[in-house]
Write a structure and sequence with these properties.
Blueprint: H1 4-25, E1 32-41, E2 49-60, E3 66-77, E4 80-87, E5 91-93, E6 97-108, H2 109-120, E7 124-137, E8 140-153, H3 154-164
Antiparallel strand pairs: 1-2, 2-6, 3-4, 3-5, 3-7, 4-6, 7-8
């Protein structure tokens, strides 16, 4: 015979087990990631802004196909927000695959010049790409915020560029 307190404990455990398993299978982790793939000059612009094209690689880390229905992108250099861009391009992504989207970004020339001054006086440049993506998964649409950051050591870049210049003088 099971005591009443033990029976209550087993009843609560039996009710909680499916809920715990259900919570474990639902994840709020975005199924998509972003990576800054390339930067190119854009066309147009004016006194206060400079056009730039960001090529952004979107990664579907989900075992299900998704569709990117557009996004908002923000780029920062050394912590300074220098530009924003929008894309309304619909981009289907197969399961566990990647694709690129070109995003026109308008940089604030004032912020960019201030950031460049700080970059030239430091030995490292860091970037952060923040994106708000509108993703359709099956019949559900959701908004995900994703971010990617990185850093570039300017001293290493300088050494690499020197190495690409050819052999040292006096070498046959």
């Amino acid at each position: 015979m099971i005591r009443p307190s033990r029976r209550r404990f087993l009843s609560v455990l039996a009710l909680a087990a499916p809920l715990a398993a259900g919570c474990a299978s639902v994840s709020d982790e975005p199924p998509v990631g972003v990576l800054l793939s390339d930067i190119a000059p854009g066309q147009g612009g004016g006194v206060g802004d400079a056009p730039l094209l960001l090529v952004v690689r979107l990664e579907n880390a989900s075992p299900e196909p998704i569709t990117i229905e557009g996004g908002s992108y923000r780029i920062r250099l050394n912590g300074t927000d220098i530009g924003r861009g929008l894309s309304n391009e619909t981009l289907p992504l197969d399961r566990l695959s990647t694709a690129t989207v070109t995003v026109p970004v308008h940089l604030s020339t004032v912020r960019l010049l201030g950031s460049l001054y700080r970059i030239l006086n430091s030995s490292q440049v860091s970037y952060q790409l923040d994106a708000t993506l509108y993703v359709q998964r099956g019949s559900r649409s959701r908004k995900y915020r994703v971010s990617r950051e990185g850093a570039l050591d300017l001293n290493e870049v300088q050494q690499i560029l020197k190495g690409l210049g050819g052999p040292p003088a006096g070498t046959p």
